[in-house]
Amino acid sequence: MLSDILDYTRTLLKEVIPPGGTAVDATAGNGHDTLFLARCTGDSGSVYAFDIQEAAIEKTKKRLEEADLHAHVIQDGHENAASYIKEAAIDAAVFNLGYLPGSDKSVTTSSATTIKAVSGLLEKLKPGGRIVLVVYHGHQEGALEKAELLPFMETLPQDQFRVLRYQFINQRNSPPFIIAAEKRQVW
Ligand code: SAM
Known about the structure:
Layout: H1 5-14, E1 22-25, H2 32-41, E2 46-51, H3 54-67, E3 72-75, E4 90-96, H4 111-124, E5 125-135, H5 140-154, E6 161-166, E7 177-183
Parallel strand pairs: 1-2, 1-4, 2-3, 4-5
Antiparallel strand pairs: 5-7, 6-7
Helix pairs in contact: 2-3, 4-5
Protein backbone atom coordinates (compact mmCIF):
# COMPACT_ATOMS: atom_id res chain seq x y z
CA MET A 1 0.00 0.00 0.00
CA LEU A 2 1.18 3.53 -0.66
CA SER A 3 2.45 5.13 2.53
CA ASP A 4 0.31 7.89 3.98
CA ILE A 5 1.85 11.32 4.44
CA LEU A 6 2.99 10.91 8.03
CA ASP A 7 4.38 7.41 7.51
CA TYR A 8 6.33 8.52 4.46
CA THR A 9 7.66 11.55 6.34
CA ARG A 10 9.07 9.21 8.97
CA THR A 11 10.53 6.85 6.39
CA LEU A 12 12.35 9.75 4.72
CA LEU A 13 13.73 10.87 8.09
CA LYS A 14 14.66 7.46 9.47
CA GLU A 15 16.65 6.58 6.36
CA VAL A 16 19.11 9.42 6.99
CA ILE A 17 19.28 9.70 10.82
CA PRO A 18 21.85 7.31 12.27
CA PRO A 19 22.17 6.52 15.98
CA GLY A 20 24.31 9.34 17.37
CA GLY A 21 23.06 11.74 14.67
CA THR A 22 21.68 15.26 14.94
CA ALA A 23 18.11 16.16 14.00
CA VAL A 24 15.78 19.15 14.26
CA ASP A 25 12.04 19.26 14.89
CA ALA A 26 11.24 22.76 13.63
CA THR A 27 7.61 22.66 14.86
CA ALA A 28 7.44 20.69 18.11
CA GLY A 29 3.69 21.07 18.73
CA ASN A 30 2.52 18.08 20.76
CA GLY A 31 5.97 16.54 20.57
CA HIS A 32 5.21 13.47 18.43
CA ASP A 33 7.94 14.21 15.88
CA THR A 34 10.44 15.20 18.59
CA LEU A 35 9.91 11.82 20.23
CA PHE A 36 10.36 10.04 16.90
CA LEU A 37 13.61 11.92 16.18
CA ALA A 38 14.94 11.22 19.68
CA ARG A 39 14.32 7.49 19.11
CA CYS A 40 16.25 7.69 15.82
CA THR A 41 19.29 9.49 17.26
CA GLY A 42 19.32 7.57 20.56
CA ASP A 43 21.04 8.79 23.71
CA SER A 44 24.33 9.44 21.93
CA GLY A 45 22.74 11.86 19.43
CA SER A 46 21.11 15.30 19.66
CA VAL A 47 17.63 16.54 18.86
CA TYR A 48 16.68 20.23 18.83
CA ALA A 49 12.95 20.99 19.00
CA PHE A 50 11.50 24.49 18.47
CA ASP A 51 8.09 26.01 19.02
CA ILE A 52 6.90 29.52 19.78
CA GLN A 53 4.05 28.38 22.06
CA GLU A 54 4.69 27.68 25.72
CA ALA A 55 1.97 25.00 25.76
CA ALA A 56 3.75 23.12 22.94
CA ILE A 57 7.07 23.31 24.77
CA GLU A 58 5.52 21.93 27.96
CA LYS A 59 3.74 19.09 26.11
CA THR A 60 6.90 18.14 24.24
CA LYS A 61 9.00 18.11 27.43
CA LYS A 62 6.39 15.98 29.22
CA ARG A 63 6.20 13.49 26.34
CA LEU A 64 9.99 13.13 26.32
CA GLU A 65 10.14 12.72 30.09
CA GLU A 66 7.48 10.00 30.05
CA ALA A 67 9.41 8.10 27.37
CA ASP A 68 12.75 8.70 29.13
CA LEU A 69 14.16 10.38 26.02
CA HIS A 70 16.17 13.58 25.65
CA ALA A 71 16.09 16.65 23.40
CA HIS A 72 16.91 20.35 23.56
CA VAL A 73 13.41 21.85 23.66
CA ILE A 74 13.59 25.54 22.84
CA GLN A 75 10.85 28.17 22.96
CA ASP A 76 11.85 30.27 19.97
CA GLY A 77 11.00 30.55 16.28
CA HIS A 78 12.57 28.00 13.95
CA GLU A 79 13.91 30.95 11.93
CA ASN A 80 16.53 31.21 14.72
CA ALA A 81 17.25 27.47 14.84
CA ALA A 82 20.72 27.52 13.29
CA SER A 83 22.04 29.75 16.09
CA TYR A 84 21.21 27.12 18.77
CA ILE A 85 22.76 24.09 17.08
CA LYS A 86 26.20 23.28 18.51
CA GLU A 87 27.04 20.49 16.05
CA ALA A 88 28.79 21.47 12.81
CA ALA A 89 26.10 19.79 10.69
CA ILE A 90 22.71 18.09 10.96
CA ASP A 91 21.36 14.85 9.47
CA ALA A 92 17.74 15.92 9.12
CA ALA A 93 15.02 18.40 9.99
CA VAL A 94 11.24 18.12 9.91
CA PHE A 95 8.63 20.87 9.60
CA ASN A 96 5.02 19.95 10.28
CA LEU A 97 3.52 23.23 9.10
CA GLY A 98 0.25 24.88 10.07
CA TYR A 99 -1.36 25.24 13.48
CA LEU A 100 -1.47 22.91 16.44
CA PRO A 101 -4.68 20.85 16.24
CA GLY A 102 -6.99 21.68 19.13
CA SER A 103 -5.28 25.00 19.97
CA ASP A 104 -5.29 28.65 18.81
CA LYS A 105 -5.58 28.47 15.00
CA SER A 106 -4.19 31.99 14.66
CA VAL A 107 -0.77 30.74 15.81
CA THR A 108 0.36 29.17 12.60
CA THR A 109 3.58 28.87 10.64
CA SER A 110 4.03 31.44 7.88
CA SER A 111 6.02 31.61 4.67
CA ALA A 112 8.61 34.26 5.56
CA THR A 113 9.79 32.55 8.75
CA THR A 114 9.47 29.05 7.27
CA ILE A 115 11.64 29.99 4.27
CA LYS A 116 14.20 31.71 6.52
CA ALA A 117 14.36 28.59 8.71
CA VAL A 118 14.65 26.19 5.76
CA SER A 119 17.44 28.31 4.23
CA GLY A 120 19.43 28.31 7.47
CA LEU A 121 18.99 24.57 8.00
CA LEU A 122 19.83 23.68 4.38
CA GLU A 123 23.21 25.30 5.00
CA LYS A 124 23.75 23.09 8.05
CA LEU A 125 22.64 19.90 6.32
CA LYS A 126 25.21 17.10 5.87
CA PRO A 127 25.65 15.68 2.37
CA GLY A 128 22.93 13.02 2.07
CA GLY A 129 20.88 14.75 4.81
CA ARG A 130 17.23 15.72 4.33
CA ILE A 131 14.74 18.43 5.26
CA VAL A 132 11.18 17.18 5.17
CA LEU A 133 8.21 19.59 5.18
CA VAL A 134 4.58 18.58 5.57
CA VAL A 135 2.49 21.35 3.99
CA TYR A 136 -1.09 21.90 5.18
CA HIS A 137 -2.67 24.31 2.74
CA GLY A 138 -6.38 23.90 3.48
CA HIS A 139 -6.49 27.02 5.70
CA GLN A 140 -5.92 30.63 4.63
CA GLU A 141 -2.38 31.15 5.97
CA GLY A 142 -1.47 27.65 4.79
CA ALA A 143 -2.49 28.47 1.23
CA LEU A 144 -0.28 31.59 1.33
CA GLU A 145 2.59 29.60 2.82
CA LYS A 146 2.30 26.99 0.06
CA ALA A 147 2.22 29.71 -2.62
CA GLU A 148 5.59 31.10 -1.47
CA LEU A 149 7.29 27.96 -0.20
CA LEU A 150 6.79 25.85 -3.34
CA PRO A 151 8.59 28.22 -5.75
CA PHE A 152 11.42 28.58 -3.22
CA MET A 153 11.86 24.80 -2.98
CA GLU A 154 11.41 24.28 -6.73
CA THR A 155 14.28 26.64 -7.50
CA LEU A 156 16.88 25.17 -5.14
CA PRO A 157 19.93 24.51 -7.33
CA GLN A 158 19.72 21.09 -8.91
CA ASP A 159 23.46 20.47 -8.62
CA GLN A 160 23.24 20.86 -4.82
CA PHE A 161 19.82 19.43 -3.85
CA ARG A 162 17.36 16.77 -4.94
CA VAL A 163 13.85 17.96 -4.13
CA LEU A 164 10.68 15.88 -4.29
CA ARG A 165 6.96 16.36 -3.73
CA TYR A 166 4.82 13.46 -2.47
CA GLN A 167 1.08 13.97 -2.71
CA PHE A 168 -2.15 12.04 -3.13
CA ILE A 169 -3.86 13.76 -6.03
CA ASN A 170 -7.36 12.29 -5.81
CA GLN A 171 -8.22 13.25 -2.22
CA ARG A 172 -10.83 15.83 -1.20
CA ASN A 173 -10.30 18.97 0.93
CA SER A 174 -6.74 20.09 0.10
CA PRO A 175 -4.86 17.10 1.56
CA PRO A 176 -1.40 17.80 3.00
CA PHE A 177 1.67 16.96 0.95
CA ILE A 178 5.39 16.46 1.52
CA ILE A 179 8.29 18.42 0.13
CA ALA A 180 11.65 16.83 0.87
CA ALA A 181 15.05 18.28 0.00
CA GLU A 182 18.15 16.09 0.11
CA LYS A 183 21.63 17.59 -0.06
CA ARG A 184 23.66 15.91 -2.78
CA GLN A 185 26.67 13.83 -1.77
CA VAL A 186 30.00 15.35 -2.74
CA TRP A 187 32.02 12.82 -4.78
N1 SAM B 1 4.91 18.27 14.88
C1 SAM B 1 3.86 18.59 15.80
C2 SAM B 1 3.39 17.34 16.55
O1 SAM B 1 4.02 16.28 16.38
O2 SAM B 1 2.45 17.45 17.32
C3 SAM B 1 2.74 19.38 15.18
C4 SAM B 1 3.17 20.77 14.76
S1 SAM B 1 1.85 21.91 14.49
C5 SAM B 1 1.17 21.36 12.98
C6 SAM B 1 2.69 23.41 14.06
C7 SAM B 1 3.41 24.07 15.22
O3 SAM B 1 4.26 25.08 14.69
C8 SAM B 1 2.52 24.76 16.25
O4 SAM B 1 2.72 24.18 17.51
C9 SAM B 1 3.00 26.22 16.24
O5 SAM B 1 3.05 26.82 17.51
C10 SAM B 1 4.40 26.08 15.68
N2 SAM B 1 4.97 27.29 15.08
C11 SAM B 1 4.36 28.30 14.42
N3 SAM B 1 5.26 29.22 14.01
C12 SAM B 1 6.48 28.77 14.43
C13 SAM B 1 7.82 29.28 14.33
N4 SAM B 1 8.09 30.42 13.69
N5 SAM B 1 8.80 28.55 14.89
C14 SAM B 1 8.56 27.38 15.54
N6 SAM B 1 7.32 26.87 15.67
C15 SAM B 1 6.29 27.55 15.12
